[in-house]
């Protein structure tokens, strides 16, 4: 996955037998189960040790989006590839720090947008819209005819303003990292 705390993700269309069989074999933290179901549905089929995260939404994009417009003064774009994803960072030129970021994975005509984030100090400036527009331009150039993403409650409003539609609820579960025992010595757990 290339993200701290995330070893692997398994994605399912429902919380049926395949997801449940997968969960039965997972013993280590950092492996995520994801499905296009409500969190309560996922909670019902998993053992109590699994932590179900906040509700999310599977969304379908209209594509292509309108042009993101010019980059505001004081920002630069950095475009890289990480783990097969096209990664875009809008950088604050004054600090060199990321102001907003996002990824898109392109596969067989489908563009999956992921980890779209505007850092707290840069919110409400339209940077998320710029990131989405520029990622969508990459998807369009690659010939993607289908656009998907999973949104948090907070992100859903931005995507709906851009024309995206909720297709289904979406839930994520993970085995949490066991807290360290007080007084335990390393290697003597």
Automatic annotation (TrEMBL):
Class of enzymatic activity (EC top level):
transferase
SUPFAM superfamilies xrefs: Acyl-CoA N-acyltransferases (Nat) (SSF55729)
* GO MF term (any one): acyltransferase activity
Q: Tell me the domain of life.
A: Bacteria
All residue ranges annotated as the N-acetyltransferase domain in the record: 35-185
| Documented EC number(s) | 2.3.1.-
* Record bears the keyword Acyltransferase: yes
Keywords, A to Z?
A: Acyltransferase, Transferase
Q: What is this protein called?
A: GNAT family N-acetyltransferase
- Species this chain originates from: Hymenobacter lucidus
């Amino acid at each position: 996955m290339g993200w701290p705390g995330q070893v692997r993700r398994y994605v399912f269309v429902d919380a049926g037998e395949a997801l449940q069989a997968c969960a039965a074999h997972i013993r280590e933290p950092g492996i995520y189960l994801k499905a296009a179901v409500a969190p309560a549905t996922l909670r019902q089929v998993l053992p109590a040790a699994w932590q179900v995260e906040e509700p999310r939404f599977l969304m379908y994009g209209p594509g292509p989006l309108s042009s993101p417009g010019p980059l505001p003064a004081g920002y630069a774009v950095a475009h890289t590839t990480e783990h097969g994803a096209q990664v875009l960072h809008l950088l604050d030129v004054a600090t060199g720090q990321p102001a907003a970021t996002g990824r898109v994975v392109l596969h067989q005509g489908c563009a999956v947008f992921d980890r779209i984030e505007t850092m707290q100090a840069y919110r409400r400036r339209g940077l998320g819209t710029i990131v989405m527009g520029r990622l969508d331009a990459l998807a369009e150039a690659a010939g993607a005819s289908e656009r998907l993403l999973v949104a948090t409650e907070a992100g859903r409003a931005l995507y709906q303003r851009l024309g995206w539609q909720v297709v289904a609820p979406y839930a994520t579960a993970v085995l949490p990292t066991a807290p360290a025992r007080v007084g335990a010595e390393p290697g003597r757990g």
